[in-house]
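User: Please fill in residues for this 285-position structure.
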């Protein structure tokens, strides 16, 4: 696969899981009509970002994979003949839950799953209460829409995650996300955080010579205002597509064929000193 037409879906969620799913389906169908062959949804696509607080009741939102929601979206993928990246709250067993991305092929089959590796625990982002750290490692899926590297939100701040996924052959790194401004943060802080968020992900594209796509939600939930700004970056950090803070769909043509030429010009993989990187396996030196 040398190219793909990618759709990023950016929207707000409510307390109604069924309404959130219906909204996502409407956007997926629209993206398909506009020619997308890969559709990417934001983190925890069918719920609010419940991790902003600690509440045992939210565990009821989790479901198995395969399960009712994946079966429903798999049927839609088959009908529309599109690849869908579906991030949701997975229940693996009693007391064991994951923040998971399901990769659905255009024939409606599940190509596989990725479970979020880095789990934050900060004010407004109490994910360690809900999610077990991913146990499947970093993943790349060779789909009909390209070699897809799957990462989720907090993973986006770690260069090691991007590097390993790229080394496994990813043409593009996808980061479904739920990030925004907390109630106590001002506009200056928002601008600084937003700029850092874009910069770190564009740096992963540059350092690894691949594409990067980040898909965020919008709307206000419990005082947290999600800032959207979903985007796709090219291998040199150039912005190919970029959204604002409104709901909608952003489509972009991505040509994977440029990756090899780019890596010939910027041969970071060739020049890595793998014999001198043992220190990266330590917490500190």
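Assistant: Residues filled in for all 285 positions:
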């Amino acid at each position: 696969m040398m190219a793909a037409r990618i759709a990023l879906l950016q929207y707000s969620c409510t307390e109604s899981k069924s309404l959130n799913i219906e909204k996502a389906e409407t956007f997926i169908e629209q993206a398909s009509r506009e020619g997308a062959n890969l559709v990417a949804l934001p983190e925890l696509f069918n719920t609010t970002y419940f991790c902003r607080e600690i509440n045992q009741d939210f565990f009821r939102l989790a479901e198995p994979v395969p399960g009712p929601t994946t079966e429903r979206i798999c049927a839609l993928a088959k009908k529309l003949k599109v690849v869908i990246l579906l991030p949701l709250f997975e229940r693996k067993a009693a007391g064991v839950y994951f923040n998971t991305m399901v990769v659905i092929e255009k024939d409606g089959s599940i190509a596989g799953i990725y479970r979020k590796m880095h789990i934050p625990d900060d004010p407004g982002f109490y994910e360690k209460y809900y999610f077990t750290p991913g146990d499947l490692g970093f993943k790349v899926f060779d789909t009909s829409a390209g070699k897809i590297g799957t990462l989720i939100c907090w993973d986006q701040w770690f260069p090691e995650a991007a590097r390993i996924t790229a080394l496994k052959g990813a043409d593009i790194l996808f980061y479904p996300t739920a990030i925004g401004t907390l109630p106590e943060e001002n506009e200056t802080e928002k601008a600084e955080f937003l700029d850092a968020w874009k910069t770190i992900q564009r740096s992963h594209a540059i350092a690894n010579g691949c594409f990067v796509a980040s898909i965020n939600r919008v709307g206000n939930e419990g005082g947290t205002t999600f800032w959207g700004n979903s985007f796709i970056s090219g291998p040199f950090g150039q912005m190919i597509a970029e959204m604002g803070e409104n709901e909608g769909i952003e489509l972009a043509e991505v040509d994977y064929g440029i990756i090899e030429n780019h890596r010939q010009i910027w041969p970071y993989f060739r020049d890595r000193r793998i014999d001198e990187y043992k220190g990266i396996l330590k917490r500190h030196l």
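For context: Helices lie at 17-33, 68-80, 159-167, 187-208, 258-265, 268-271.
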